[in-house]
Design a protein that fits this description.
two-stranded antiparallel ribbon; Peptide Methionine Sulfoxide Reductase, Chain A; alpha+beta; single chain; 7 helices; 32% helix; EC 1.8.4.11; peptide-methionine (S)-S-oxide reductase activity
């Protein structure tokens, strides 16, 4: 609770000093995506650290952009203060624009399970509340299938069958206030959740067989034999 109060106080101090209001930054639209890119939307606690670690590992390796914001709730244009109050239903989240020819959605989701603790329901470290829940918000049926496959693997092999991450369809996205974007890059001494670090888990042998099987071309049906001419 003390870490939450410190974060909230620091947010308001920062916003007043740079002229940012408490209103949210507004929604983003998939229609503005650059050509040949996709979206990945995830939640894993305080969005500052989630954004920072994804940028650190994937900048120049397929990550086009990463924005922090709010999703999964039932109110329009939520502010940070309202989200932290728990009354909007939103999660602090990260939306990644990526080039699938350079980094796969599967890799981004595997990475999610390496950088936070998905076993603590509605909590990361000292940050407690539904806004800090672990979640994957898929943008297509293919993303849903991959997210479920990666989650099964991580649950069985990395996290002792205790994962509480929710996997649901993406809903309205609201950019967080300007001062939240690239927060740890702009404030190197800022708050960072101690649960956000890279874990060197090994992938199990033969993984990801489920995806490989589904992508294999089907054997063509044997052609019907030509009728043999009578001699």
């Amino acid at each position: 609770m003390s870490s939450f109060i410190n974060r909230l106080t620091r947010h308001f101090a920062s916003s007043s000093s740079i002229g940012v209001t408490s209103a949210g930054g507004g929604s983003s639209s998939n229609s503005s995506l650059p050509a040949n890119t996709e979206l990945a939307t995830v939640a894993a606690g305080c969005f500052w650290g989630v954004e920072h670690i994804y940028r650190k590992h994937f900048q120049g390796k397929g990550l086009i952009d990463a924005r922090v914001g709010y999703t999964g709730g039932d109110k329009s244009n939520p502010s940070y203060a309202k989200v932290c109050g728990g009354g909007t239903g939103h999660a602090e989240a990260l939306q990644i624009t990526f080039d699938p020819s350079k980094v796969s959605y599967r890799t981004l989701i595997e990475f999610l399970y390496r950088i936070h603790d998905p076993t603590t329901l509605n909590r990361q470290g000292g940050d407690v509340g539904t806004q800090y829940r672990s979640g994957i918000f898929y943008h297509s049926e293919e993303q849903k299938r991959i997210a479920e496959d990666v989650t099964r693997m991580a649950n069985q092999n990395w996290w002792g069958n205790k994962i509480s991450t929710v996997i649901i369809g993406a809903s309205d996205w609201w950019d967080a206030e300007k001062y939240h974007q690239r927060y740890l890059e702009n404030n190197p001494g800022g708050y960072e959740c101690p649960m956000h670090y890279f874990r060197t888990f090994k992938l199990p042998e033969g993984y990801p067989a489920a995806e490989e099987d589904s992508n294999q071309p089907k054997d063509p049906k044997p052609a019907a034999e030509e009728p043999k001419a009578e001699l």
